[in-house]
Automatic annotation (TrEMBL):
Residue positions, PTM 2-(S-cysteinyl)pyruvic acid O-phosphothioketal: C116
Keywords: Cell cycle, Cell division, Cell shape, Cell wall biogenesis/degradation, Cytoplasm, Peptidoglycan synthesis, Pyruvate, Transferase
Descriptive protein name: UDP-N-acetylglucosamine 1-carboxyvinyltransferase
GO annotations of cellular component type: cytoplasm
Active site: residue positions: C116
Catalysis performed (reactions): phosphoenolpyruvate + UDP-N-acetyl-alpha-D-glucosamine = UDP-N-acetyl-3-O-(1-carboxyvinyl)-alpha-D-glucosamine + phosphate
Domain Enolpyruvate transferase: start-end pairs: 7-406
Superkingdom of origin: Bacteria
Species assigned in the record: Paenibacillus beijingensis
MF GO annotations: UDP-N-acetylglucosamine 1-carboxyvinyltransferase activity
InterPro entries the UniProt entry points to: Enolpyruvate_Tfrase_dom, Enolpyruvate_Tfrase_sf, MurA_subfamily, RNA3'P_cycl/enolpyr_Trfase_a/b, UDP_GlcNAc_COvinyl_MurA
Amino acid sequence: MDKLVIEGGQPLSGTIVIQGAKNAALPILAASMLVSGTVTIGHVPKLLDIDVMLDILRELGCRAEHNGQTVVLNTVSAFHTHIPEALMKQMRSSIFLMGPLLGRFGEVHIYQPGGCAIGERKIDLHLEGLRALGAHIEEQGNRISCRAEKLRGADIHLSFPSVGATENIMMAAVLAEGRTMISNAAREPEIQDLQRFLNAMGARIIGAGTDTITVEGVESLKPCHYDVIPDRIVAGTVMVAAAATRGKVNLEQVNPAHLTSLIHVLRRSGVQISVDGDIIKVDGAARPKAVERIVTSPYPAFPTDLQSQVMVLLALSDGVSIMKETIFEGRFKHVDELSRMGADIRVDYNAAFIRGVPRLYGATVEATDLRAGAALVIAGLAAQGRTIVEQVHHIDRGYDRIEDMLSRLGARIIRYTPVPDNGVVPN
Ligand SMILES: CC(=O)N[C@H]1[C@@H](OP(=O)(O)OP(=O)(O)OC[C@H]2O[C@@H](n3ccc(=O)[nH]c3=O)[C@H](O)[C@@H]2O)O[C@H](CO)[C@@H](O)[C@@H]1O
Ligand SMILES: C=C(OP(=O)(O)O)C(=O)O
């Protein structure tokens, strides 16, 4: 298992271009299954989750290549509708294949998806939505079979604005007969990106970015070329890392509108942020101030995917902050690890009470999930001494070689890949 070794105490400095968004690229790749032809997707980051998605698409019969940041996907000979359990279990986003396969072939056979252990993560809203469109769904243990002779548009109200359920229903509705209206839809920027991609292929969708999305079913789609939006969570991670190390970083080719809630929190903690077109400048010269109360909630509120990273900044700030997590019940696993580095954090149910300390100290810590791992990397960059972050594969799910990105900003961070017992050094 790879480890990251970080020598802390070096302020980040410089300019960086941010990778494409994992959470946009994954549903877009899955949605490509709706069409027969060659789809080209640009700005796709090299990540473990993307590799898994491409493996699933190949298993379904696609030809898929990922060169540089571009994925070329030929779906012409894809006709399988079964996804093996081993692939389904590798990530949550395997669930995105349901809508497209059902839409194109009228059936899909899958297993419960896997993913980071951050909460229960049910899929009832996905299934309810597909049932409303006319799918017959059988669940046997963790096996799920879905069939529909013909999907028909429907009015679907989500009891919670689930990102994945909104996307799955949109994808299934594209080739359905008639109009689908999704109310209380999730409003995340990645949903707008999916709408743009589907419309570029000939779909007729409006409303993404609001809480009501309308899909007018079409007969067929045509392949297209599409570039994925920048990753707001990676951008946010870098912004927090700059602030926590008291550094100065410019982020280029980002969409500042996608980061409004983070910018607001950072400004409240005294970090200087300036925005100029698609550039964000972060100047974290002074010790941050505590932020009284932050609550994670669906977009446009503060994102759960930046909760752990911001907690590191609060752990180093002057005063007591409260962070409330309302999306995932198991998303405070970084707290124990941060405490090992000297943080003073108490968790009570879904709230963390963070008493800022003047400094953190290097330690050996474990990434328990993707964003918890990113938080520990930030803590290591800001800490005094050496930090070793274990279980880096979690971080590799969402960051395209995080050590290279941070090294470009002056961080002292290297990846250590152990030599396996057979003596072969991995690539
Ligand atoms: C690939 C991707 O885009 N992942 C993001 C997506 O995950 P994901 O799409 O899984 O997140 P959801 O918005 O669906 O989940 C949010 C909450 O709703 C619950 N829920 C969801 C679906 C369902 O059928 N039933 C149900 O109860 C979940 O358990 C969770 O408590 O949005 C999350 C919330 O912003 C982010 O943290 C993830 O990074
Ligand atoms: C929780 C996340 O992703 P996923 O939904 O793919 O597990 C994340 O990106 O932080």
